[in-house]
């Protein structure tokens, strides 16, 4: 979502009105320490918390899509901070980038323009995984900035200058 802040923001935490530049819809937002977040709707926040079993990329994306707002939010509909999310999906593309020393795992996405999401992991993993393999990963829901949530995998990239983590910490038995 491309947004435009309607209210000036100078404080460490500020309430905002955000405008979606595509459809003109206004939503509540908050700026915390320079990061802007869409405030989830009550319907999204108050959804029952439950473990849904393994989630595909599409299902994982749906967890942070607020259907009332029509926007992605930093809140997982059926999970709380501390919960473990079991991810299982088919690898649709696998590419090793020698320069970055990173293997990109691609999964089908319902929201990306090219239809896939790529998640990088450190090292050359192409001898361990192949296109068509099902992969099981385990992510923990953590705070990005309280009360806004993200996955520990995504937080790693944000706090390590965009670097990819090792895959081992997300494999079964490592959580």
Automatic annotation (TrEMBL):
This is Uncharacterized protein.
């Amino acid at each position: 979502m491309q947004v435009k802040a309607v209210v000036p923001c100078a404080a460490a935490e500020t309430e905002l009105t955000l405008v979606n530049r595509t459809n003109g819809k206004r939503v509540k937002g908050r700026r915390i320490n320079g990061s802007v977040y869409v405030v989830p709707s009550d319907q999204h926040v108050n959804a029952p918390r439950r473990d849904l079993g393994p989630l595909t990329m599409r299902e994982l994306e749906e967890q942070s899509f607020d259907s009332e707002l029509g926007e992605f939010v930093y809140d997982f509909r059926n999970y709380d901070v501390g919960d473990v999310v079991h991810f299982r999906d088919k690898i649709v593309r696998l590419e090793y980038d020698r320069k970055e020393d990173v293997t990109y795992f691609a999964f089908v996405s319902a929201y990306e323009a090219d239809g896939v999401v790529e998640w990088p992991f450190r090292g050359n993993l192409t001898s361990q995984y192949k296109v068509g393999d099902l992969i099981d990963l385990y992510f923990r829901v953590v705070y990005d900035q309280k009360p806004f949530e993200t996955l520990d995998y995504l937080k790693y990239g944000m706090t390590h200058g965009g670097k990819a983590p090792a895959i081992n910490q997300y494999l079964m038995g490592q959580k």
